[in-house]
Structure formats: structure tokens, C-alpha cells
Amino acid sequence: MANRTNTVLITAVVAAALGIGIGATVGRGVVPSAQAVLNSNAQTNTAQNTAATSTTPSASASTASLPSSATASTGDATQPLRAEGTKLVSEANTISIIKQYEPGLVYITTESPANPDAFGQMGGGQSGVGSGFFVDDSGDILTNYHVVTEGGQVQGATIKVRVQNQKVPVEAEIIGLAPQYDLALIRPKNMPKALIKPIPLGDSSALEVGQKTVAMGAPFGFDFSVSEGIVSSVDRQIPIGFNSGGEGITQNAIQTDAAINPGNSGGPLLDSTGRVIGINTQIISPAGAQSGVGQSAGIGFAIPINTAKNLLERLKAAGGGLVLAPTIGVRPGLLAFQTTANGRVGIPVDLSAVPSQLRQQYNLPPSGFLIGEVSAGTPAAKAGLRGGQLRSVGGGQIAVGGDVIVSADGNPVGSIGDLQAAYIGKKVGDSVKLEVESGGKTRSVEVTLDQSSFTTLPPN
What we know:
The chain is mainly beta. It has eight helices and 26 strands.
């Protein structure tokens, strides 16, 4: 059975579409786009071997220390440093976390139905492996979107889950999917209540570089494995999830050096108190670019748990459908047409791709997101943003007279993805500050997200 993960081979391009098709498995010839498969090099922080007091899920984890006999130099290299059975504070903390919370770890397998070949023979279906964890007493399991979808296809795929020491897996159903966040919520159909052990959720906004991390999952299918490292960065910006064109939307991620490999996707990243601070999702894998199979290089990424906490209620209420990232109600006004298997389609283009002569002709800035249409009643319309009149130019279309969004919350905007990155983590009532240019003049516009910004699509 192939190991599943959202392996990001640095030059790969994810071909995906919401509810249509997304490749996201390793070992099956499908490589997801400019994202790296979550996984990282487990590097035990040797500084933790000094007896710095740490908060632990059990009292015993903070009481272990070197016996006095171990501090004396005997000059005999054959003598152990401490009495047999004693543990360092860091070791005791890790063991305590594993004993208390690994029962909440879930091993996930997926299998798509076999399809007949040209001769009518049934070929083997695709299969994958991933991880997840319980988030409540109802048995809801949080994992990655790419773990529970077969190349982006949800219908027909069979999802099975099991916990530690459970020999026979049980089938699970999809409760909600959030492709743009690479998150999914599933629920086992016949899991004994006694086996449902939720892991407490932490606060990823309080993280600091250097904090201990414990990654749980099934690297390369080796179920219920654990690795340890530290938080390497708390504000790394990387493409996550799958947008309508297949590419990820730039979002905040936790970087860790805890060893993570294909099969760890969807598993929890815990802190030294045993609380979940992230969901393992990607890795940087230079070796994987050559072999096609991602492997830990010491740089792994996890989706901050606060992102998932903000989505949980929407996922629970999705009825198996799609939970979409917020929108403000604008459509792109610069399109280049391409002929595809589905006919002629318009691809949004950044203004920087437009020849300078044409930009000068229509009094447009060097870069930015040109608005083609503003939907009535949306946050963009309420804020006074304006679309333009579409005109055919060469092999595309350009909106003349529309506003151009050049920055959002202080960050440059060149594409719809840049714009989405500014508000993908926001909630109802939150606002985004835009710098808008029109007719050579610049103005500031504040757009406030309302209930219409948040959409849930029913299952296909």
C-alpha cells in the first residue's frame, strides 16, 4: 500500500480543482504542486537534557533527574552515568506525552474502486496511508484533505481508520472538507466509544521558536510512530491546500525539524504539555525531487491548530460538503484564454504580464489585481470597489476602468491568490485594508467580511 502525503517537490505543479481532481499522493505517480510534503528531520534538542522544568501531562515527567552518584567523576569509562531505569527530564516528558495521548492518534487508509481497462478487465484501485487524531468525544477525526481524497476524487473512495492496538479497521465517512486549507473532518461509523480518545487542542498563536515538538503519525506506513524536535519558525509563509486552479494559497505555517515523512500527513504536532499545536501537512524534500518519493530533510510544516479550530464548527455542519475560504466578491478583470479539454477557458493574469505599452494605454499600474466584476451585496460592493468594462485584447480580455488592488494589509497583491492570502484566516467581522489604484489615483479601502463571505458547497 503506498504511503500518502502531500509531497512538495520543489518544482512540482499541483493539478487540482475544488471537488474535481487533485493529485496528492506519494508512490502513486501523482505529485502535488508547489508545496512540500509535511515531514521533517527529528532532531532531539540536547539542551533539553539539562533539567529545565517543563510542564508535562503527568507529574512524573518533571521529577526525573540525574542521581547524585552520576555527577561524580569516577574515572571509569565503564560505569553508567546514572542508575538503571532513571530518565532525563526531556525523556520522561516525551514518554509521558506518548503514553497519555498516542491513543488519540488515528491510522487512516484509503482505497479507490478498481476501474475496468480497455479490455474490460478490472484493474487495482489506488490506495494511500495517512494519519489523523480525535478532536472530540463524538469521534470526529481531523486530518489533511489530501489524505482522504484519491487524486481529489471523493466519491467512491473507501476510508478506513483504526487506533492503537485495534486489529480490525472500521469504515469512516466524510463530515466536511476544506481543500483550500488542506483540512478534512471524518468520523468512524462503528468505533467503540472506549477507543475514542480526543487529544486536547492548544493555542498556536502562543508558540515560540525553540519550543519542543512531538510529531505522531505513520511515516512510510509504519503506524503509530513518534519523532521529536523543536519549533523552527512560527511565521513561515507557504502555499497550503488546493485552490480552484490547483495551486495552494499562501498561508502561515509552523516549521519544525521533527522527523516527518510520507504517511505523517494529517497527524498531530504536539507541544511539551501534550496539546496539539499543528497538523502535519508538508515537507521540503530535495531528495524527493529526484526520486519522486518525499523524505525528511529536517524542514517540515504544520498547519497551525488555530486555523483548524476556526474551521471546526463549519466542518461539522458541512454535511460532507466543501467548506470554502472567505471571499469579498470580486472577479478578475485580466484573462488570457487557453484551449483545454473542457474548451476555451480564461486564466487570470497578473498586470505585470501585460506589455508596458498596453498598461500605459489603459492607465494601469505595473502590477496588481485588476477587478473585472464586483458582485452586488458583497463586502467588496459595500466598500465601494468597482469593476470595469471587459474588452477583447489579443488572446484575452481586459477590464477597462476597473479598480486595481495593489496591496492588502500592507502586502503586495499581484494575483487572486495574493488577495485570498490576506483574508483566508479571517472570520466574520474581520476586515482587510486594501490599497486601490484607479485612473492614476490611489485610495485606501477597508473591506469587512460578513456572513456572505463564507460559503459551504454540498457534496457532489
